């Protein structure tokens, strides 16, 4: 029994090749396919071995035969011998491009490569140049067939090695000036590049999907090559960023993935979202998952970036109104669902393409003043009516402050004027009394006064008509005492000192205090 096991294992090991294998065409694993199986399904044509023989794809097989016949007629060739010879030379290399065993013999495999390769070349050639189309070609009589074919040519599992297409093109082309990159242009979804600016296709490209991926990412990859990446962070949704004062603008960049953040604005190229969007992006992210040996996976990073912005249909609505999302699905809810589906089961590497933008945006959102200013703009400057309401409220507050200020100033101003008027009148009467007073030296000596202090005091009881003069031998008036003297027709009668409380003294007001302070400094020397 042990000998049988040994023989079986030895036989197994002898059949293994130790040569390095670098397959480029895979079946999508269940962890990706399970999210949306239809994104990887074919609509009209099978290219390569994985979906060959499926019933709903058989109608296009006759068109493959027809296109091969057109190629031979145009080249005035009666047999395909030269094509088969070239493909036999490339057969082994082509086998190794597939990641699993293929249930075809070598003859069927070469036939498949020839028919599929010639069909791709003829279809893309006719699509790009209407003059090359036959008048009765049913593929171009109905527009929906073109759309189905373009869709199927971008499915990750539905590929043949690009070196097969390149070699067949070199044989088929009529004009020596024909370039294979002209075939790629129809696959670029309305053209990332103008046809005349389309760069050449490197020899190392795996297949059509890989070429489209690299052309779309090429200019963005060059700019990103000089970037120092920061630690991957997350950012808030589009609505939350708008509340923090960040605007969203449509970019005119020729790179689909070239997103910028400057002057408090997120500048993003237009993204057209239609029925085919999820399928295209799922197959591109699958290509990055299986084939890209670099941590910079641009499509996956872009999908994650948009997912961070769109957390709800309201976020999708904001980006649509900003001109960033062009919605061919109808409702904003559908856009949200597509973006939310795309991000499932994807992996973000440490060199996230937009890590620096995320970092700068988070710094901006961390400043409280930015949030306050954004709230002000949103609540009071978002519409003319809100602005009018704000201006009306500000005007009302200003007028109220002015009214209150004038009321306070008027109270003190009028009271001060009244006090000054009374003080002036008292001063005049005091001067008149001084002129009538004849102070003789002998009277001063009799009274024993070396100097006389004259104080003018407001008599609140008698009013301003009462005499306001008094003589006292002290140089300063007593504290809290007010001396009132009344003059009758015969003689000066000195009234007793009237003591008043501090409250009554304060109630005399600024006029009495002013009078007191004024005449307190007036001295008459005998």
Could you characterize what this model shows?
It is a single chain. This protein is mostly helical. The protein has 3 domains: 22-210, no CATH class; 238-380, no CATH class; 398-525, no CATH class. Helix content is 50%, strand content 7%. It is built from 20 helices and 12 strands. The chain has helices at residues 2-14, 30-33, 61-74, 81-95, 106-128, 143-153, 162-172, 181-184, 208-224, 238-243, 277-291, 298-309, 313-321, 332-342, 355-365, 368-380, 384-436, 441-446, 502-506, 509-520, and strands at residues 247-251, 260-262, 265-269, 271-273, 325-327, 451-454, 471-472, 481-482, 486-487, 492-493, 498-499, 523-525. It has a 3-stranded mixed β-sheet with strand order 1-3-2. The chain has a 3-stranded antiparallel β-sheet with strand order 7-6-12, with no helix packed on it. A hairpin with a 2-residue loop joins strand 2 and strand 3 (265-269). The longest helix has 53 residues, at 384-436. It starts with a helix and ends with a strand. Mean pLDDT is 75; it is low at 436-526.
Q: Let me know the number of strands.
A: 12
Beginning-to-end CA distance, first to last residue = 152 Å
Major sheet attributes:
3 strands, mixed
Number of domains: 3
For the residues shown, what is the average pLDDT? 75
Radius of gyration: 50 Å
Proportion of residues in helical segments: 40-55%
**Contiguous runs where pLDDT drops below 50 for at least 5 residues:** 436-526
Overall 3D form: elongated
Derived from helix and strand composition plus strand pairing, the structural class reads: mainly alpha
Strand order of the largest sheet: 1-3-2
| Number of helices, counting only DSSP H or I runs of 4 residues or more | 20
Strand content: 5-15%
């Amino acid at each position: 029994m042990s000998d049988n096991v040994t023989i079986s294992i030895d036989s197994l090991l002898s059949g293994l090749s130790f040569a390095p294998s670098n397959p480029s065409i895979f079946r999508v694993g269940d962890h990706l396919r399970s999210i949306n199986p239809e994104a990887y399904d074919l609509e009209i044509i099978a290219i390569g071995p994985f979906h060959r023989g499926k019933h709903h794809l058989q109608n296009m097989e006759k068109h493959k035969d027809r296109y091969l016949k057109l190629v031979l007629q145009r080249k005035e060739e009666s047999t395909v011998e030269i094509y088969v010879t070239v493909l036999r030379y490339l057969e082994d290399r082509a086998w190794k491009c597939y990641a699993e065993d293929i249930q075809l013999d070598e003859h069927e495999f070469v036939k498949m490569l020839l028919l599929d390769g010639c069909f791709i070349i003829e279809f893309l050639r006719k699509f790009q140049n209407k003059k090359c189309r036959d008048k009765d070609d049913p593929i171009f009589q109905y527009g929906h067939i073109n759309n189905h074919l373009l869709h199927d040519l971008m499915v990750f599992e539905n590929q043949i090695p690009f070196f097969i297409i390149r070699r067949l093109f070199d044989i088929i082309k009529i004009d020596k000036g024909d370039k294979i990159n002209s075939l790629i242009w129809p696959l670029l979804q309305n053209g990332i590049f103008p046809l005349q600016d389309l760069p050449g296709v490197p020899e190392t490209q795996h297949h059509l999907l890989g070429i489209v991926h690299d052309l779309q990412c090429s200019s963005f990859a060059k700019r990103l090559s000089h970037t120092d990446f920061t630690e991957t962070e997350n950012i808030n949704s589009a609505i939350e960023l708008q509340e923090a004062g960040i605007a969203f603008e449509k970019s005119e960049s020729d790179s689909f993935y070239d997103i910028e953040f400057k002057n408090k604005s997120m500048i993003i190229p237009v993204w057209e979202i239609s029925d085919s969007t999820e399928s295209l992006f799922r197959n591109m992210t699958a290509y990055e998952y299986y084939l890209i040996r670099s941590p910079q996976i641009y499509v996956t990073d872009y999908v994650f970036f948009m997912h961070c912005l769109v957390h709800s249909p309201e976020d999708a609505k904001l980006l649509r109104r900003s001109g960033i999302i062009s919605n061919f699905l109808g409702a904003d809810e559908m856009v949200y669902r597509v973006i939310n589906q795309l991000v499932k089961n994807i992996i973000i590497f440490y060199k996230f393409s937009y890590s620096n933008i995320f970092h700068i945006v988070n710094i901006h959102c961390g400043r409280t003043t930015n949030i306050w200013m954004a709230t002000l703009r949103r609540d009071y400057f978002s519409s003319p009516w809100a602005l009018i309401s704000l201006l009306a409220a500000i005007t009302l507050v200003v007028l109220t402050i002015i009214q209150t200020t004038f009321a306070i100033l008027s109270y003190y101003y009028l009271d001060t004027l009244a006090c000054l008027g009374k003080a002036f009148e008292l001063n005049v009467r005091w001067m008149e009394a001084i002129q009538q007073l004849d102070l003789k030296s002998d009277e001063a000596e009799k009274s024993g006064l070396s100097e006389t202090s004259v104080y003018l005091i407001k008599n609140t009881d008698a009013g301003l008509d009462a005499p306001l003069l008094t003589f006292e031998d002290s140089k300063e008036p007593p504290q809290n005492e007010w001396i009132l003297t009344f003059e009758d027709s015969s003689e000066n009668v000195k009234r007793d000192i009237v003591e008043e409380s501090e409250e009554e003294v304060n109630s005399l007001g600024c006029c009495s205090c002013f009078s007191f302070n004024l005449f307190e400094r007036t001295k008459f020397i005998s």
